[in-house]
Amino acid sequence: MRLPFFVYGTLRPGECNHDLFLRGRTVAEEAARLAGAVLYEGPGYPYAVEEDEGVVYGELVTAAPDAYDRLLAGLDRLEGYAPGDPANLYERVARPVTCGDGRVVRAWVYVAAPAVAADLRANGKPIEGGAWTAS
């Protein structure tokens, strides 16, 4: 599936990984939100944890068609994701996100892997308001 990406941390515009991974590889970036998740502080980057209540704010990023495969592989590496690997920090899942104009779009989202999510629920610090910035 060639889905757009929902980004909510270091890949957001103005953050450290945006230019490294996304600049020149996208055809659209727009404000969006992910319902059913809570944002938690991580070690210099956030984690979205799937929960019944909560909203995470970020951007919906549509990759340029000729850059899609390289971008997907690069983002998987950045997020420490490999399909089926029990050591993953994140899992890449397809979820509906809502754009600023009300459209609902299915997108790839990197959410906390099960063990990480359980630890964050028990010991983590939620980010009030569901929006993260490094500064």
UniProtKB/TrEMBL annotation:
GO terms for molecular function: lyase activity; transferase activity. Residues 5-133 form the Gamma-glutamylcyclotransferase AIG2-like domain. This is Gamma-L-glutamyl-butirosin B gamma-glutamyl cyclotransferase. Keywords: Lyase, Transferase. Its EC number is 4.3.2.6. It comes from the Bacteria. Pfam families: GGACT. It is an enzyme of class 4 (lyase). The keyword Cell inner membrane does not apply. The lineage of its organism: Bacteria, Bacillati, Actinomycetota, Actinomycetes, Kitasatosporales. The keyword Transferase applies. CDD domains: GGCT_like. Gene3D superfamilies: Gamma-glutamyl cyclotransferase-like (3.10.490.10). It comes from Streptomyces jeddahensis. InterPro entries: AIG2-like_dom, GGCT-like, GGCT-like_sf. Coiled coil: none annotated.
